[in-house]
Write a structure and sequence with these properties.
By secondary structure, this protein is an all-alpha fold. It contains 10 helices and no strands. Its main location: membrane.
């Protein structure tokens, strides 16, 4: 629904160049469209299981994200009070964003911590306190929190791999159910046959079944003949090798 609304907001009114706000909506529309395509790829038998893994890992991250938000805000506000004279921590919002950046591995210790202390821009007792909070932050966020997220994600992937067949069948059933509910009633009536109608069309159904079974038998016989020919060829090759 959000995709349709954003797409309509981007093209209305038709025939005119979009306004700056509409270009922003257009960027969101493209993002939602590709995510929607990714959701439909889940119905494919080959890569659908990997899309399911991606969704499971994303849900796990969002669940753990509730805990991470408290840690990021706590460390971000602490850095804002101690290192507020630095550009990266000049406001509470910037400080929280920088802390999130540090969580994913961009610690930037030399520019953010060492240089201000060395150049006396951060003086006692804030210099010692900044080092202590920095060490605590690197322990909880990049090490503990990220490893926790990775461990939960690996567990989800292992669970999906063990139930890959059932997961794929579940997704396909949900997809077919969605298609059936969205099809017009006229099309559903033309495609659906009740038990009584199948009985009335019994001869036709039996005829289709007979030819289908006959085709399967022919295919099996062809496979048997090919297998027998391959066995004979292998026997001939072994016989020639024994003679040599």
């Amino acid at each position: 629904m959000a995709l349709y609304v954003s797409a309509i907001a981007f093209v209305v009114p038709p025939g005119q160049e979009p306004l700056p706000g509409q270009w922003a909506v257009g960027s969101i529309t493209i993002l939602l469209a590709w995510f929607n395509l990714l959701d439909y790829l889940q119905n494919l038998p080959t890569i659908g299981i990997y899309v399911a893994m991606f969704r499971s890992v994303s849900l796990t991250f969002f669940k753990v994200g509730a805990l991470l938000v408290f840690l990021i805000v706590a460390f971000g506000l602490s850095f804002y009070i101690i290192l507020g004279h630095e550009k990266a921590f000049s406001s509470g919002l910037y400080s929280i964003l920088k802390t999130f950046d540090m969580m994913v591995g961009e610690l930037d210790y030399n520019d953010m911590f060492f240089t201000p202390i060395y150049e006396k821009r951060t003086r006692y007792p804030f210099d010692i306190l900044a080092i202590i909070i920095f060490l605590t932050c690197t322990t909880f966020l990049p090490i503990v929190a990220i490893n926790l997220t990775v461990g939960l994600a690996v567990g989800d992937i292992d669970k999906i791999e063990r139930n890959a067949v059932l997961s794929r069948i579940k997704v396909q059933v949900e997809f077919l159910d969605q298609i059936e509910r969205e099809l017009p009633s006229i099309i559903r009536e033309r495609l659906y046959y009740s038990q009584e109608e199948k009985k009335e069309l019994g001869f036709q159904m039996k005829l289709k079944t007979y030819f289908k079974q006959a085709q399967d038998v022919v295919e099996v016989e062809d496979e048997d003949n090919n297998t027998q020919n391959e066995i004979e060829e292998v026997k001939d090759q072994l016989k020639h090798q024994d003679e040599k």
